[in-house]
Write a structure and sequence with these properties.
The complex is a heterodimer. By secondary structure, chain A is of the alpha+beta class. Chain A is built from 6 helices and 8 strands, in the order ααβββαββαββαβα. Among the domains of chain B are: about 190 residues, Nucleotidyltransferase, domain 5 (2-Layer Sandwich); about 130 residues, Alpha-Beta Plaits (2-Layer Sandwich). The chains are: A alpha+beta, B alpha+beta. At the A-B interface, helix 1 and helix 2 of A face helix 7, helix 17, helix 18 and helix 19 of B.
C-alpha cells in the first residue's frame, strides 16, 4: 500500500507592501483647498483717480494711513489729477489745489483714489459748502455705503444712504499700502510731478 | 511592473452573458432582465493559470480567491459583478475597473475611439487584434445560443486585452482611489441587479393605448394654448400665444424661437403655464414607452453607466431608465405586494457642498437654517428678518432660481430669462450672491484657476476632470459641487449595499430602496445613516440633511411635478379602456 501523502499547511508567499484599502476613507481623502494649491492672487494694476460717480455706491477706507493731503493740479479739461511733490507745490501755488486723497471702493469692487478738495480760509459760503460736503460724505462712507452727487440747487454734494437695517459686509480692501496705491494711480500713469520737465509743467508754462 | 503590486494574485476576468435570449442586441438591451452568464475566462497573471468556464460548469464559488489579497481586474466591472450575483458568488474585496480608470485618465479630453475597451487599447497604442468585429458573435450570444468554443475564444480575447492594457495604464492609476471606484462598481452591480419595481399592468395598458392617449392629450391640453394642428406643433401660433401672455422666449441667432427641450424645460420652470405644454411635447416626440426596460419580474433594469458623466455621475439611458423620461411617468413605480419603497434624498446637496468645501461661514449658516433661499434673502437684505417660505413665496422662488442658477455658472442674461425679470434685476441678484458669499466665490474662482494652471481638478476621492482643448469655465466652476456630490452618492450606495439594503436605483442626489413593509423603517434608518456617513466622509465631518418619502403597497410613487399630468393620463387611459370594453 502506497504511503499516504503527508498534508501540511503552506503559508502564502509574502507580498511587498500592504494592499490599498478602499474602506479606509481617511487615507484616501484629497484636499479641496484650491486657493492654497494655486497660490493665485489678483494683481492690482490700475487705480483710477476720480470723484465718485453719480450712481455709484461707495465705501472709503477708514484707516488713517489710507488717506493723506496733497497738492494736486486738477486738469479739468482732461479730467486728470496730477500729484505734485512738496517742492513742486511751492513753485506752482497758483495752480495747485489742496486735496485729501481717500482710498475708496465701489459695490463692484473697483478701487479708486478720491481727491476731495479742502476748503481754504478764503473759501466762504457756497464754495466752502461744496468742499466740506464732499469731505463729510467721505467720512460717512468710512462707516457705511453712500452715494454722492452734486446738487446745484443745494450748492453742495448730496449724500445718500440706504435704510437697509442689516449690517453691511465690509469691502475687501486690497493688500497694498497707500503708497503703493498712489504709485499705481499717479506714477504709473505719468501723473506724478517731481520736476520741471514734466509735460504738465511745460504746458502750464506755455512751453 | 505587476510584481510591484501588493497583491498575491491579479485576475483579469471577462464574462459573456445573455438576458434570456433575444432576437437583437437592442431588444436584449431593453429587456430589463438580469444577466445570465454564458461563459467566463479569467487568468491569474503572476502564475499564468487560466480558468475557462461555460454555462453548466460554474461552481458555487469562483475558481480564484476573492479576498483582499487578490486584485480583480475588469473593464466596466458591474457587468462581470452582475454575473457574480447571478451565480451567487461573493463580491471580490479589491476591484480594479480599467473602464473607470480610463475615464478618470481621459475625462474632459477627447478619446477618438471612445471609452470602450477598444478605445482604451487604441489610446495606449496597443494591439486591438481579436477585440474588433465582434458584433456578430455578441448577437449570437445575446440570442441565447449554447456556449461553444468560439464564444470562449471570444471571451479570451477580452481577458487578453485586459492583460495588455493593465501594465500600460498602471503608471497613471491612483490605485487606492481606483479601488474605491471599483468598490462602487460592486454597488452598481447590486443596484442594476435589483432594479426598480414597476406597476406592470398599468404600463402594459399605457403601451397598448399610448397612441390614442397622445391624440387625446393634444386635444385636452391644447385647449388652453391653441398651438396644435392635428399632431403638428405650429410655431406661429405658439409665437402668438407667447405674445398674448407676455412671455419673453429665448431666440436662436437666426431670430427663430429656441424650441429645444432644454429651453422648454427651463421656461416651464419659470412660467408654470408652459409646463403642461412642455410635458405634452415630450410625451409626443421623445417618450417611447416600449423602450422602458422592464423585466419579467416587473423590475426596471438598465445599465447605470457609472462614471459616464464628466462629473463622475451615472448617466443611464434616458429612454430605458424609469427616472429618465418625464417625471409623471414615475407614477409607474410601485412597490410589490407586502413591500414598501423609500426615496431618500439629500436636501440642497450642492449648496451644502459648496458651503462646506469653501468654508464660507455665511453659506454654512444659510444651509443650517434648513431653507437656504430664505436665508440668502435675509443675509443680502432682500427679505426682512421674519420672512418665511409662507410669507414670501414669490421672492423665495426668485432667490431659489438665482441660487440654483448661479451654482451652474448662470450669467445675468440667462438668469433674467429664467426668473422672468429684467436683466438689471438678475445682475443685482448675482451681485448680492457674490457679495454675500465672498469666501465661496474666492474658493470657486480658485478651483477654475487650479484647473487652468495644472490642467486638472479633482474631488475629495480623486475623480478628475482634465482641461482639454474644449473646456467650459462654467462647468469647471461647478465641478467641485457636482463631482463631490457624485462621490457622496457613490459612497452612500457602497455603504448601504454592503449593509444589505436593497437599493433599486441611485438618482442624482437621492436613493430609492425597497423592503418588506415591516422592515422599511429599519432600512430607511440604515440608509440615512449610510448617507450621513458618506456626507461626513466627503465634507470633513459635516452632515447634509436627508429627506424621506415612504410609499407602501398598494400606493404608488409620485413626483409632485408630474402629479397633474399623471392624473390626466390616467383619466384618458380609463376612457380608452372603457371605449375598448364597450366595443
Amino acid at each position: 500500500m502506497a504511503d499516504k501523502p503527508k498534508l501540511h499547511a503552506v503559508e502564502d508567499p509574502p507580498i511587498d507592501g500592504i494592499p490599498p484599502d478602499p474602506f479606509n476613507l481617511d487615507e484616501l481623502k484629497l484636499g479641496q483647498d484650491f486657493e492654497a494649491a494655486t497660490g493665485v492672487r489678483k494683481l492690482l494694476t490700475t487705480v483710477p483717480v476720480r470723484k465718485p460717480g453719480r450712481q455709484e455706491w461707495i465705501r472709503v477706507h477708514p484707516g488713517e494711513n489710507y488717506r493723506a493731503t496733497f497738492g494736486v493740479i486738477d486738469l479739468k479739461a482732461d479730467s486728470e489729477f496730477y500729484l505734485l511733490t512738496a517742492n513742486m507745490v511751492r513753485h506752482f501755488s497758483d495752480e495747485v489745489i489742496l486735496v485729501t486723497i481717500y482710498t475708496a471702493i465701489n459695490k463692484q469692487g473697483v478701487l479708486f483714489l478720491w481727491p476731495a478738495r479742502l476748503p481754504t480760509p478764503n473759501d466762504r459760503g457756497r464754495v466752502a459748502r461744496w468742499y466740506s460736503s464732499a469731505i463729510e460724505a467721505a467720512e460717512l462712507a468710512m462707516k457705511r455705503s453712500v452715494r454722492v452727487k452734486s446738487n446745484l440747487s443745494l450748492g453742495a454734494y448730496e449724500t445718500t444712504v440706504t435704510d437697509n437695517p442689516l449690517p453691511e459686509n465690509d469691502p475687501v480692501w486690497p493688500d497694498l499700502t497707500f503708497q503703493e496705491l498712489l504709485r499705481i494711480g499717479f506714477q504709473k500713469t505719468g501723473c506724478f510731478v517731481d520736476n520741471f520737465d514734466h509735460p504738465i509743467i511745460k504746458q502750464l508754462r506755455g512751453l | 511592473m505587476l510584481e510591484t503590486l501588493p497583491f498575491r494574485a491579479i485576475v483579469p476576468i471577462d464574462f459573456e452573458f445573455d438576458f434570456g435570449g433575444h432576437a437583437s442586441p437592442e431588444e436584449a438591451g431593453r429587456s430589463g432582465e438580469r444577466p445570465r452568464p454564458t461563459c467566463m475566462v479569467a487568468k491569474e497573471l503572476k502564475s499564468g493559470q487560466t480558468w475557462r468556464r461555460r454555462r453548466g460548469e460554474f461552481d458555487s464559488t469562483p475558481p480564484f480567491s476573492t479576498d483582499a489579497s487578490t486584485l480583480f481586474v475588469a473593464y466596466y466591472a458591474s457587468a462581470e459583478l452582475g454575473c457574480f450575483r447571478a451565480l451567487g458568488w461573493p463580491t471580490p474585496a479589491r476591484i480594479l475597473d480599467l473602464f473607470t480608470e480610463f475615464r478618470s485618465l481621459t475625462n474632459g479630453l477627447t478619446t477618438p475611439a471612445g471609452n470602450g475597451l477598444v478605445g482604451a487599447l487604441i489610446h495606449f497604442n496597443l494591439d486591438t487584434i481579436g477585440t474588433l468585429e465582434k458584433d456578430t458573435l455578441r448577437a449570437r450570444i445575446l440570442r441565447g445560443e449554447p456556449c461553444c468554443p468560439e464564444f470562449l475564444d471570444y471571451c479570451t480575447t477580452d481577458t487578453d486585452a485586459l492583460e495588455r492594457l493593465l501594465p500600460a495604464m498602471l503608471p497613471g492609476i491612483d490605485l487606492p482611489r481606483a479601488l474605491l471606484r471599483g468598490r462602487y462598481m460592486a454597488a452598481a452591480a447590486a443596484m442594476e441587479f435589483n432594479g426598480v419595481p414597476i406597476d406592470v399592468p398599468t404600463l402594459t395598458a399605457l403601451r397598448r393605448h399610448w397612441h390614442d392617449i397622445q391624440d387625446q392629450l393634444i386635444r385636452a391640453i391644447d385647449v388652453d394654448y391653441g398651438v396644435f394642428e392635428g399632431r403638428t406643433f405650429k410655431v406661429d401660433r405658439f409665437e402668438k400665444f407667447l405674445a398674448d401672455q407676455g412671455i419673453p422666449w429665448p431666440r436662436l441667432e437666426s431670430g427663430a424661437l429656441d424650441l429645444s427641450r432644454d429651453t422648454f424645460r427651463q421656461m416651464a420652470k419659470s412660467y408654470r403655464v408652459i409646463a403642461p405644454l412642455y410635458e405634452l411635447r415630450h410625451a409626443l416626440s421623445e417618450m417611447r414607452l416600449h423602450d422602458l426596460a422592464v423585466g419579467s419580474d416587473g423590475r426596471n433594469r438598465t445599465i447605470l453607466s457609472a462614471f459616464r458623466a464628466r462629473t463622475g455621475r451615472n448617466q443611464p439611458s434616458n429612454t430605458k431608465f424609469i427616472f429618465g423620461p418625464s417625471v409623471w411617468l414615475r407614477g409607474l413605480i410601485k412597490p410589490p405586494p407586502g413591500h414598501a419603497i423609500a426615496y431618500v434624498d439629500w436636501v440642497n446637496q450642492e449648496f451644502g457642498i459648496a458651503a462646506k468645501l469653501s468654508g464660507d461661514e455665511m453659506m454654512i449658516a444659510a444651509y443650517l437654517t434648513g431653507d437656504p433661499y430664505i436665508a440668502f434673502g435675509k443675509q443680502c437684505g432682500k427679505l426682512p428678518h421674519d420672512a418665511t417660505k409662507a410669507s414670501h413665496p414669490d421672492t423665495r422662488q426668485l432667490l431659489k432660481q438665482c441660487v440654483l442658477g448661479i451654482q451652474y455658472g448662470m450669467e445675468a442674461k440667462t438668469l433674467a430669462f429664467r426668473i422672468g425679470q429684467p436683466e438689471i434685476v438678475a445682475r443685482e441678484l448675482l451681485h448680492a450672491y457674490r457679495d454675500t458669499y465672498r469666501k465661496f466665490w474666492k474658493w470657486s474662482d480658485a478651483a477654475v484657476d487650479h484647473a487652468m494652471l495644472f490642467g486638472t481638478l479633482h474631488t475629495v476621492f480623486g475623480w478628475r476632470v482634465h482641461v482639454g482643448e474644449q473646456f467650459n469655465p462654467r462647468s469647471l466652476q461647478n465641478f467641485p459641487m457636482q463631482a463631490n456630490g457624485a462621490e457622496m452618492l457613490r459612497l452612500a450606495c457602497c455603504l448601504a449595499t454592503e449593509r444589505g439594503i436593497e437599493i433599486c436605483a441611485p438618482i442624482h442626489d437621492a436613493i430609492l430602496i425597497c423592503a418588506p413593509i415591516d422592515r422599511i423603517d429599519d432600512d430607511v434608518a440604515k440608509l440615512r445613516e449610510a448617507m450621513n456617513e458618506a456626507s461626513r466622509a466627503v465634507l470633513d465631518g459635516f452632515e447634509l440633511r436627508t429627506d424621506v418619502r415612504v410609499v407602501k403597497y398598494p400606493d404608488r410613487f409620485m413626483d409632485d411635478r408630474g402629479a397633474v399630468m399623471w392624473q390626466r393620463v390616467m383619466q384618458l387611459l380609463a376612457r380608452c379602456q372603457q371605449s375598448e370594453g364597450a366595443a
